[in-house]
Amino acid sequence: MSRRADKKAETRESILSASLGLFQQRGYRETTMRDIAAAADIALGTTYNYFPTKEHLALAFFDRSLERVMQRYRREADDGMALEERVFLLLAIQVEEMTPYSAFLHAVLPQAAAPGSRLSPFGAEVGRLKHRFLELVTEIVAEASACGELPDLPGYRAMLLQAFWVYDLGILLFWLNDDSEGSAETYALIDRSLRFLIGALREGGAMDVLSLAETGREGREAGAAGDDAG
Amino acid sequence: MTRAEEGRVGDRDAAGAVGPVSVPARLARMGRAGAVIAGREAAGRLREAGETPERRGELAEARAQANATTLLEAAGELRGLAAKLGQLLAQEGQGLPPAFARGLASLQRSAPPMHASLARLRARQALGDWPEAIFARWEPRPFAAASLGQVHRAWLADGRALAVKLQYPDIRRAVESDFRLLEQSLMLLRLAGRDADAMGRALDHLRQRILAETDYRAEADQLEFFARALADRADLAVPGVDRAHSGETLLSMDFLSGQPLDEWLADGPSQAQRDALGRRLLALFFVQAFELRRFHADPHPGNLLVRADGGIGLVDFGCVETLGRGQADEVRELYRIPIDDAAGLDAQYRRLGLYAATDPDARAKRAALLALQRANVGRFHAAGAWDFGRAEPMRELAGCLREVARLGIASGPLVLFERSQFGLYGLLHQIGARVDCRQVITPFLAG
User: Rounded to whole angstroms, how far apart are CA atoms B375 and B370?
Assistant: First the structure.
């Protein structure tokens, strides 16, 4: 990276961390771009060049968090883990990485829920992050299919991924409202729900529910054969 | 508080809600499990029409068992609770219908373990850092299941080998929630004309006990008490606690070598070895109850180790009951009074507060307690070895305990003592031990 690019990345990072600090302390709505520029000790105009709106800052935060979650997952996952454990690990890392920013997330959530918001989890901007995240999930599921842990699911992979995204958002919402010590309720929910959901996928029962009769049955038979082998 | 208000308090989830609504509505709220049970009850009552009373009883019993299983499978909120209940009910099914207890007991070993990622997360939550950072070595996979969690091996930097018991997350809420579901099943059984109050009390007692077991700090206290009290017994080992690495949801103790009881049994020990172990266990029970006045109320195969020298390792003190000095002495007196001295026993039962002279049920209670005395204490008056492997005396004793509970004698020192003792007999039955009970009790009755 050139010195110029280095400098740019540095400026961007200092604006981002100054904004997160303020969002945490004062609240997302209460913080202005002017406050952020002052806290980062950077000219307001320059700050706007990097982040035209507060929503861009929030997006940058999500981008950075996603990157950290994915990096940590790749470091911590090992070959011996079953599918339930892999997905648990991914979601647990996500909860851990978000924990220092829960106040910010509380503040940003109502914004994200508003229709047409740039922060909408179903909008185009967040969609790019979602795509990267789901690529990792696809990889995890494909590995599980390849080693016979799951029946092959080509026909409804897209639907499953969409469902996983909604599930993940639900887990985050639950966690934000979880006041148990060390988020114990959230971890218990993740563990129990994954056991149930992946168990259903493995046995093919979920396919029946979705009335994907033909392919579903093949998938189940393949799954059952896999069980016999194991 | 009215029933209606009671129903709304703590109404956290639909499955657990007990509201002022009709039985079909309650069943509907329980979702699929409720529907299955409602269907089974309706079909069952049709089938019963025209049958003899005995046959009707059998059919109802079979339905109750199927209902219990359906409910617990649907409950699933807490893996391990079914296991815990199974263990407890196997020992103290009194008050709950036998079929219900059997249904629970059959689920005993169904608890799946926490995977390594969840286990290390739990360790970090309890200890403040990842287990690999805290211990010199940490085994990511458990070596034993504990009913509310599991046990991992770990080593400290100085080489001390530990057994680290980890609790599954969020156990207390899950226990409460599953018990609400079980209470609902009680209501169903009430439809079948069972004694709901006795069952309610039994269930509440179990709930309290399981909740008490979720605080591992209390267990650490018990471990230290027993380790001190039994320190001079060469044939007994109790692990020491590593307080620096223990808390409410994690307990680090010395790793004890030895075989879990069921493994030891699977290796086919000789009759002499079985008898020796049985004798030790029975004597240990009286040491605890009469001398320490604190006893292991949960004697099941999972918390006993047989050591290489035939000694006993005690590893689980989650469930301990305490007797007062006077109480222990009054219970001990029951072993001194001749078995056919009905008047002497009657006086002793009253001293134990089991019934008053004015109690309208006094006669029935006295008769039930005398039958219990013959079924249990009789073996301590008989000469020669008592064969715990025989099933019939176990059934008879279970029947006596049930009758006593049915008459409303469901708490107090004698009941605690008898329940734990019955649990121990279950172990001795599994071991197939033959023990000269009179010889074992004699030293405890001196003085």
Answer: 9
